[in-house]
Amino acid sequence: MDQPLRYRDGHSDRIADDRSKRGRGNGQPDAHLQRAGPVAGDRRWLQRQLRLSLGDRGGVRCQRSRVRRWPLCTQPRPLKPGASLVYRRASLPLALFLFFLTTACGTNGDATQRLVFDSERDGDADIYTIAADGTDVRQLTNEAGRDYEPDASPDGKTIAFASQRASGESAQLHLMDIDGSNVRRLTFSPAGPGTVLDDYPEWSPDGTRIVFQRTVISEDKKHVYADIWLIDPQTGQESALTNTQNIWDSTPSFTADGKSVLYESNQGGSLDVYRQPIDGGGAVRVTGSDGTDSEAKQSPEGRHIAFISDRGGDFEVYVVDSDGSNLRQLTSTDGKEECPQWSPDGTRLSFSSDRDGDQELYVMNADGSDQRRLTNSPGGDEVADWITGE
Questions:
Q1: CATH class of 18-58+109-387
Q2: What's the predicted TM-score (pTM) here?
């Protein structure tokens, strides 16, 4: 028999009783829905434990070309006897120049590369951007109603995001230009009875589609269902990728080739990551554990998938090869790690964590090394996406 969901007040409280956390009942996670504010107890949680964040942007891998040691001839010229010391001294200024040039270029890259994210630093969820070195925070939205879960288009010109500004407790997808201007509504889900949440949008690699999660909460708050939908951002035409009332399908993202969608589902019992072609074909399970696997993102070159899992107790960031093999754990803290997202060149991952007492944005290398905090605000900062094409 269905049991009513239990709601509490507070940013980090959970909405669904323990029966639903491991795929029992309809098995919805309590992570992603946390973001929509006071809906269903406070939508900013129904998915906070398990949200997926954004997309693989297939950006250009930044590789330095090899330095040609002998640019003026095909063979190295032998040094004259006794000239090695002079040669080393002459090379020192060049080596110093190259060192400082490399350092400057690296710093400038982080200062010009930007991420978009949502934050409650002003008391309400709004959309911001930040440089990859943690500087130059810019606020893009400041409207009544929560704006959350932003995703930047592959050309870096448009942001898709979820918002409650026009629909009360329900949430609809909106678009805006990369500077926060020209805001327009994208989805128009019918209102009531109950609540409909359109959120967790992500652009396809070619920018022609947006995949998103549509959650339906019954009027009596006893039933919560989620499915995966696709929409054309130009025409607004929608199509359902999944349509199963008794299954929880959520936090979608496109694969690097744009032909399939990754999402979490309890169709096999526990919440695992699945891959499903968008033009026909069944879902294939990618991960499996006794815990919850969620928020999967494929790397830009298509070789790896980052996701979060509580298989070890706390939610941590993991990586597997795209066929589900070769599992590696990248984070290990007493906090909760969420929303991993690949950088455009595939060398880094952004994620959010409350390891320092508040939800903040972090960046680390793709192997889990060099974890550093980007933000430090009184409100939660999360769901970051790397902006490409700028």
A1: mainly beta
A2: 0.77
